[in-house]
Amino acid sequence: MKYMIFPSKRQWQRWAAPSKITAVGACLGTIGLVIAMMTHFAGSRTSGQQVVKSNVHIGEDRLVRFIAEKDRFETLKSSVHQKVRSIDAEQQDLNQQLDALNRQMNVARTNMINAREDIREIKQQSKWHLEDVNVKYELILMDSHTLFELNEKLGLIKKRQAELEQERRRLEASEENVIAKIEDITKQMEIEK
């Protein structure tokens, strides 16, 4: 036996420490390789099937989660659309009220102008009917008061319109975010397929 796999005792004692460590490492590596190959080939049938089943199950879970997320965002998108329609309806109602107030204000202004013209005519005719003048002034005061109240209502309506416009912008931005999220989920679902 000219070539031996393992060194004799005398050879072993003559070797330096790095050589001894290399020999021990080679033996342990060979044993580890044999064990790894036995484990791999013995369990390959069942572990391969388990990996495939596990991957399919993970894919199904992701798909269900994506569908649930997409449904949730679709519901949110629908809710945003409904709120926007509600704001539009309220703004339309406020616009109608605003038009009615503008018509009333125009009538009040016209009445004031007519009353002033009547007073001028009375003064020009030099008929100082004190009662007529007082009645005309009272009409002017009433119309001024009505005009003031209408201006207050107009201010409230304009303020509400500004609030609604601000809410509309916020909802539109929210809707854009929801649409972007739905598109991302749809793309992820397509990638997963």
Shape: rod-shaped
Helix content: over 70%
Tell me about the largest β-sheet. Answer: none
How are helices and strands ordered from N to C?
HHH
What does this structure look like?
Helix 2 packs antiparallel against helix 3 (130-192). It is rod-shaped, with a radius of gyration of 46 Å. By secondary structure, the chain is mainly alpha-helical. Helix content is 92%, strand content 0%. The relative contact order is 0.09. The longest helix is centred in the middle third of the chain and has 108 residues, at 17-124. The protein is built from 3 helices and no strands.
Jot down its keywords.
single chain; mainly alpha
Short description:
This protein has 193 residues and is mainly α. The chain has helices spanning 9-14, 17-124, 130-192.
